[in-house]
């Protein structure tokens, strides 16, 4: 949050919990923290998945025509009907993880640890916790609970507010 | 010669910046950190990092596919 020292601040509402969408909030929050900003993340709905101790993040090519994987010099999309075949989503997830490893992209868990280490404040939406029947025992340590008003207070005092 | 060298070769965004920040924090004010990276995005990113944080980018060069940055820890 903003303070008298002139420190900049950023908040992000995190709403998505797939492997691909897990990255933008983690990359931006760790980088902003490294650049001296105070950062708050508010996890709601599927974003809450990112706070689970064992998130088992996956992704699906279903309904995502922009997802084209590099394959033998070309870029291949996948017809929606393919995603219905058991194992295809798991295969796409494995392919993405493999690509990330080869290209020196950090793992999600690595970025999440770096975020916590650099004092990124993480707030889990109380309402979504209740809705999906999660308890704090399911979540990683170092996070807190809050609601919409908690987020809005942070947002009024932040220089940058994003929704992902 | 820089006071310390950080090998960030093969790492992709944002890891070179995150590791550089960590290394800078451990250095005394005025000390220099050399960062070696292969991520072409690091060129713009280290410039932005330097402008925002005040850790001066005192040297910058490229040899083959390796980018070299020298940052000076701010007081």
Report on this structure:
The complex is a heterodimer of chains A (164) and B (75). Helices cover 32% and strands 18% of the residues of chain A. Chain A has helices at 23-34, 88-102, 108-117, 126-131, 148-156, and strands at 9-14, 38-43, 69-71, 74-76, 121-125, 144-146, 160-163. Chain A has a 5-stranded parallel sheet, sandwiched between helices. In chain A, strand 5, helix 4 and strand 6 (144-146) form a beta-alpha-beta unit. Chain A folds into 2 domains: 9-58 and 108-163, Hypothetical Protein Ychn, Chain: A, CATH 3.40.1260.10; 69-102, no CATH class. The mean pLDDT of chain A is 94. Chain A contains 5 helices and 7 strands; from the N terminus they run βαβββααβαβαβ. With 164 residues, chain A is an alpha/beta fold. By secondary structure, chain B is α+β, with helices and mostly antiparallel strands. Chain B has one domain (4-64): Translation Initiation Factor IF3 (2-Layer Sandwich), CATH 3.30.110. Chain B has 2 helices and 4 strands, in the order βαβαββ. A 4-stranded mixed sheet of chain B has the order 1-2-4-3, with helices on one face. In chain B, helix 1 (15-26) links the parallel strand 1 (4-8) and strand 2. The A-B interface holds A 27, 30-31, 34-36, 103-106, 114 and B 10-15, 17-18, 20-22, 39, 48-49, 52-53.
What count of domains describes the coordinates of chain B?
A: 1
Helix content of chain B: 25-40%
Shape of chain B: globular
Largest sheet of chain B: 4 strands, mixed
Low-confidence stretches of chain A: none
Listing every helix as H and every strand as E from the N terminus to the C terminus, the arrangement of chain B reads: EHEHEE
Write the layout of secondary structure elements.
The complex is a heterodimer of chains A (164) and B (75).
Chain A lengths: L8 E6 L8 H12 L3 E6 L25 E3 L2 E3 L11 H15 L5 H10 L3 E5 H6 L12 E3 L1 H9 L3 E4 L1
Parallel strand pairs in A: 1-2, 1-7, 2-5, 5-6
Antiparallel strand pairs in A: 3-4
Chain B lengths: L3 E5 L6 H12 L5 E6 L4 H12 L2 E8 L2 E7 L3
């Amino acid at each position: 949050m903003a303070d008298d020292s002139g420190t900049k601040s950023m908040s992000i509402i995190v709403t998505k919990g797939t492997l691909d969408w897990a990255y933008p909030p983690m990359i931006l929050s760790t980088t902003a923290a490294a650049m001296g900003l105070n950062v708050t993340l508010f996890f709601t709905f599927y974003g809450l998945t990112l706070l689970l101790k064992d998130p088992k993040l996956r992704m699906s090519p279903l309904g995502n025509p922009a997802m084209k994987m590099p394959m033998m010099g070309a870029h291949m999309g996948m017809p929606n009907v393919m995603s219905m075949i058991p194992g295809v989503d798991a295969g796409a997830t494995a392919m993405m993880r493999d690509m990330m490893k080869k290209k020196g992209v950090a793992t999600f868990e690595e970025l999440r640890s770096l975020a916590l280490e650099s004092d990124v404040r993480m707030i889990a939406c109380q309402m979504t916790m209740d809705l999906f029947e999660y308890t704090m025992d399911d979540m990683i340590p170092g996070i807190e609970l809050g609601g919409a008003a908690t987020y809005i207070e942070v947002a009024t005092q932040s220089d940058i507010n994003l929704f992902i | 010669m820089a006071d310390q060298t950080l090998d960030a070769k093969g790492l992709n965004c944002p890891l070179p910046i995150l590791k550089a920040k960590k290394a800078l924090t451990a250095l005394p004010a005025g000390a220099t950190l050399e960062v070696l990276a292969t991520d072409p995005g690091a060129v713009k990113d280290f410039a932005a990092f330097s402008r925002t944080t005040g850790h001066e980018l005192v040297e910058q060069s490229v040899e083959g596919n390796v980018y070299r940055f020298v940052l000076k820890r701010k007081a």
